[in-house]
Amino acid sequence: EGTNGSGDKPTLSVVTEAGFMPFTYLDKGELTGFDIDLLEAVMGEAGYDYQIENVGWDAMLLSVEKGEADLAIAGITVNEERKETYDFSSAYFESTHKVVFREGEGITSGEDIKDLKVGVQSGTTGAEAVEKILGKNHENISKYDSNTLALMSLQSGDVDAVVTDNVVADEYVENNPEANVEMITDPDTFESEFYGIMFPKDSEVKEDINSALQTVIENGTYSEIYQEWFGA
Ligand code: GLN
Questions:
Q1: Which domain holds residue 103?
Q2: What is the tens place of the pLDDT at every residue in 35-52?
Q3: What's the CA-to-centroid distance between 223 and ligand 1, angstroms?
């Protein structure tokens, strides 16, 4: 275990899922995103060195559950079900879901996906939202290991629509004009949710990191990072 300048703090192991642009993704092989910048600010404030590894969604959850990683960040939604298995920081970002679909599909509400083939990222709140509409494990739901793969399946025509987090949908639609897709949101169908940093249940660093997150939010650093990524 390494130490940082202040002496006695361990180097923390952070895991992420780099298929969730603009929160965590790879740019020319390098891990980048809003969450990556926020993490750096929070860890700096808390005085921890850390190593971050892109392990994918399922492995990320498992390594936090087992306590092999000290924390995870990847646009992870805090909800009651997950709180049974993990601990979370306070919320740092509000989110909801959007439906991304091929132009002309005529989708105007969440319920409109009911008779379509829908792609989701397995094990996410987007997958849950779709199961509420179509039914649990419905045959028209295709589950992918990453959001990136779900969106690729939309382009290739394997599914008619993809449900994912609103900011991720915004980024995808804006960056892929040649994909000929459009999107809608629907506050009557898709609830508001919040992202948090995820910790193992018995985390000894959670309090430290959560208070650093509060400082970063209160001292304007969060706003600077937000401005950089979302320009508002
Ligand atoms: N916010 C969603 C969830 O927690 C998706 C996160 C992700 O795919 N990285 O389920």
A1: 97-185
A2: 999 999 999 999 999 999
A3: 22
